[in-house]
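Interim report, section 4.2 (structural modelling).
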Amino acid sequence: MKPRPPTLREKRRYILARIVPHYRRIEARQMYIAAFEALTSLWGDARASELQMAVISCEPGHCIVRCRRNTEALVETALSTITDVDGDRVALHPIATSGTLHALRKHIRPLPEGHTVDGMDIDGREYAGILFMRQKVDLYAKGIKNQETLYFTRDEMEVD
Amino acid sequence: MGCTDACVFPYPHGDTSLRRLCLEARNLGLDSIVCIDAVERGQIHDVLVRRGVIIETGSMQEVVARVKKEQRTADLILVRAGDGAFNRAALSYRGVHILRGLGSAPKRAFDQVSAKNAADKGIAIDIDFFPLIHQRGASRQKALRCYRDVLRLHRKFSFPLTISSGARSLLDLRSVREITRLCAVFGMEPHEVEDALFTVDALLEPAGPVEVI
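Predicted structure of the assembly:
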């Protein structure tokens, strides 16, 4: 089948969203499921079908979502209501919208590197942690089930 | 003066420490936050931290007693909304700064009389977008319906509005851009969102008559 000429093609917009915490590994398919659930629950099936949302890529720290032009505000709002993906607590912060992927990729910042530390004690519970620049420390309760996460800074942890 | 998130819960209420919340708030474009039971105040990581206290009770007598007790230590006093009679009474008492939690209050908890009281006393009504993010279905629809009604009364009576995330984790905080988008869901215009984000400063320094010094 012959492809449509550019003038007859539907105009698209691409949304770049920051994933917090950035080290969560999320598959594009899982992100699509979460985003579609958020879209449908907020705007309803009829409206969601008009948006033609698709997840273009989902890399550590950010994801790119495609939608129809003039519907980016609706998609951004729905992305803001995502609280977990495949059972993992995450937040998505839309940061930029563009008509081309090339322009959007300029907004992607390098990810901060962290190193792991072990054996930190908070309120009698043992935690392992990841130390990042700008004083951030993410802590995970040790255990197999219900791994609680705490978000602190180095000042509060007194970590050297 | 700055964009303020009117209610966040740092550790131990939530999973994020006060300083980490400040770091994240700065990244998201907020200038100040109201922390419930915060142990520190002032500028932390370029974010102004104000100490807030939430009074959760159904009795007005208890509210009056708690307000008198907390007035000296807290910058802002927030009261959780209850039924219509309680809200009317709370909105007539000058020691209260913000009434929050209307999204989960009973039916007819906020009417034109409460709106008039809030406007007269300069008490703000809080729009908490926690239910918009974390709830689905009927409970979210109820919150949206309530906020639409509050907005309609705000446009008529001009009482102050504040916006809060009710964040118990840094994952619950939202940027100014996202707040504007979320508030548009129930019909709040961007300039109204901007005014609401700046309301906390006005609550702490209410406009009074001109004085000769």
